[in-house]
Amino acid sequence: MRQVSRRQFLTTATGLAGILASGVPPAWGQSREISYLCWNNFAPLMDKKQLEIAQRFTKDTGIKIRIDGISHMGPQQAKYASEVQTQAGHDLVEMRMHFPWLYEPQLVDVSDVVAELEKKYGKALSSAYEGAYVHGVWRGVPQYHGMFVATYREDLFKKAGLKVPDTWEDLYTVGKELKKMGNPVGIPISQNYDSISTAGPVLWSFGGLEVDKDGKTVRINSPATVQTIEWYKKMFRDCMEPEVLSWSDASNNESIQQGKAGWIHNPVSAYIVAKQRKLVTADGINHHRSLAGPHGRHETDVPRQIGIWKFSKNVEPAKEWIRYLLGKREVYDEWIMSGDAFNLPAYEKLQDHPVLKTDPKYAALRGEGVQYHTYGWPAPPSDKVQLITNSYILPNMIAKAVTGTSTKDAIVWAETEMKKILAG
Amino acid sequence: MAVRADEIPVPRGRPRLSGRVRGWLDRESILGPVFVTPALLLLLLLVAYPFVMAVYFSLSNAFIGRPSQFIGIKNFVRLWESDAFRQTFQNAFVFTGIAVAFKVVMGIALALLLNQQLWFKRMIRGAVLLPWVIPTALSTLGWWWMFNSLYSVVNWTGIALGVMDPPGPNWLGQRYYAMAAVITVNVWRGLPFFAITILAALVAIPKELYEAAEADGAGANARFWHITLPLLKPVLAVVVLFSTIFTFSDFNIVYVLTRGGPINSTHLFATLSRVVGIDTGRIGEGAAISLYLFPLLVFVVWAQLRFVRKQAY
Prior knowledge:
A: about 425 residues; 7-stranded mixed beta sheet; B: about 325 residues; mainly alpha; 15 helices; about 0% strand; flat
């Protein structure tokens, strides 16, 4: 064994006493490693690119980063809940929609990082504010969003001389023709998120809402809801097939890719996958803006944010990663480009992003005059409003109406359910 | 006086520690608890603790990551106000009742068949177990594809055989069809458990009983009703008991096939509990949903085990 001199022993003992007294570990002992829990991106190349960027980040800053992927539909929320309950897990988490509201007390204030990004890229989009700006504090840094545009079979439209619709009423007109051609409209009316992502915009466009912006008053029983249901009823009868009652989030994509549906309401994933898999339908698919109603053009998009858990011991290195990924324009661009327009920047000045010029079929994604909202708008996304959303009351109300329940009874049912949830 | 060596008293000092431990372990009253303790600790940690936590959550207004308060049985009372919960309650009984009934009848039939002298007996018995061995979520995905509105092979076959009119039933989109679909998959998955357990009981029935009955002129039906079924009763009671509990608490099949839809018509306690407890963070209410039937199931277990004990002694 190596001999320890008296001087060495005294130096070490004094240092150790100092560390114990101050409670601060020495610099070389402090963790410079962060962990990040992400969803498995629908655009997998973005995950690959992010890993590449993470390696460069480690090289440039000396901070090691571990990125774990998780499926976003089911396991993600269960994993977040367990991390919060045990107060242990990753430093950073990728969030979507209203998650920052749900986990508000557990998330670090990241307003400083968002302020830097807004200074550089302009204001964050409306849906980013709705989802992550919680009681005047940013609980997540807006990173990108995916839009619910209209995906349609341009080749079939041209063949039949159909006009690209601009309003939900126009869609009914062309939808009737499409169904006659054997290529019905594909809007799910089932217990999935795509159903809500269409029912919300239709309701908003007709001037309706579920719960008022006070988050307490149920507003579903209105003439606008009657109009929405009547529109759905005639669409279901004349433009769609009953299969939409059983659809999952993937079904409308599959339907247009396999050559059945003539029009769906979905992010551009249907086209991207068709293109990647070289499906025969890919060439005929194109997009147009989501549709308008008497009260304007509203869209549900899917805002994504990065949050930092309060129990993280590495808040500053975690912020450094966000600044590196989103704050450096060249890095942010490179990452967005890898997603092939599936995920677009969440800041105003970046809306005309170069990725939209990589394929003429992305032209429709340049949104002007569109209002982006999270589920349940204009009510703040509280846990009760989320329970209304996750209980699928809106699509269930429509499903009841299109399968025989009277419009009035369906609305009263939805109103009663919403009131019970808000009162609970 | 001469003293023999074996008569010299040995000094009786304290025995060595290892010797003392060995001595203790030779006593059954000590060895038994030593062997049982690790299992007991595991049970406490993995079963009792989560259960107690779930009970605590169900009696509180717990929300993910926020301080909670005790609110008594308010969650349980309030659940009845929810249309989705009342529908779930009804679904759970319909689903469990029909599925277990099918599994009992088909399980006995399959066990009787497997008890015959079959060619490739071992291979067939092994194959029967397959649905039970494959991970549920994976096999249910296969069923999802078979019931899918766009690719349904069930409908394709039905139409090809002329028993269905095109386009065939919308299996997962209409409430009764959707319930039929989830029950079908549950029966398919649970049948091997019944068949193999009943087969084990069948094999144990003494052949002499059948020979004597046959000599007395009893036919196949009489032999089944008067020998086979009475002797299967204790095993059937245990199998039905387990299956009832598993079927009530099923999650994967409904979650993969319908996610509780259409219009909540296939939600079970576990799937609704997940939506409320995890997706919206209302842990208290979610725990109350999952524990709602606990008192009833405890009673069922007690009654069934009492029945089994009566049958056995």
